[in-house]
Write a structure and sequence with these properties.
mainly alpha; about 70% helix
């Protein structure tokens, strides 16, 4: 599917479209820090879902407020369970490949590398599907329609490859925060988190996974 109409560069600049981006990012950095002890993960995932909806609706300001932590946690814990289910499957396959191929020196290392790239590609598609379906239905079972997920990935291979590369670039920037007194990583990781959510939203919009549309009340007509 053609992705030439997607502004991929916006994944890197989206955060700065919000006039109040700094306090929102600082709060996000705190929850990123708390993710080290699991507590922050549901809040971050819930925030990502709220941002996902805002992006599809073209809502302004684009970054959600941190004023409804209960709802963010509730949505986030459900997303966490769904992602955990998929993550366990990927981990088992990765373990088996690593255990088997680890005994074959150069070729084994290359096969493991290819699997890691393929897994990242598949997980981008899976996450886009989960975010798109759950944002509409609030039904966890809707995220496990494996036939539809396979169809999404096979019919939008080029789109997801580009999305995977953009996501990798964002997370590389995220880890660069380690350069700045280490604590900077929590700011840059949350920055990458925001851009990554934009990538998921673009897959959903382009592939027609979600039927959330732009709110006409916030569109500017020239």
């Amino acid at each position: 599917m053609d992705s030439s109409n997607i502004d991929w560069g916006r994944a890197f600049s989206l955060v700065f479209e919000d006039e109040k981006w700094l306090p929102k990012v600082l709060i996000g950095a705190v929850f990123t820090l708390l993710s080290g002890i699991i507590i922050g993960i549901p809040f971050l995932l819930g925030y990502s879902l709220a941002l996902f909806r805002n992006i599809l609706k073209e809502k302004k300001p684009i970054l959600p407020e941190w004023d409804n932590l209960g709802e963010l946690f509730n949505d986030g814990i459900k997303l966490f369970v769904m992602l955990l289910a998929y993550g366990v499957v990927v981990w088992i396959i990765s373990f088996l490949i690593g255990f088997t191929m680890g005994r074959i020196k150069c070729l084994g290392t290359f096969i493991i590398f290819l699997w890691d790239i393929f897994a990242a590609f598949v997980l981008i598609g899976v996450r886009a599907y989960v975010w798109g379906k759950f944002s509409e239905t609030q039904n966890m079972s809707s995220a496990f329609q494996f036939g539809e997920i396979i169809h999404l990935i096979t019919e939008n291979t080029g789109l997801i490859i580009i999305a995977t590369l953009i996501s990798i670039a964002l997370w590389i920037i995220g880890y660069l925060g380690m350069i700045g007194l280490f604590i900077g990583i929590f700011l840059t990781m949350f920055y990458a988190f925001i851009g990554d959510t934009y990538v998921l939203a673009m897959i959903c919009r382009q592939a027609g996974i979600s039927h959330i549309e732009a709110d006409e009340s916030v569109l500017v007509i020239d």
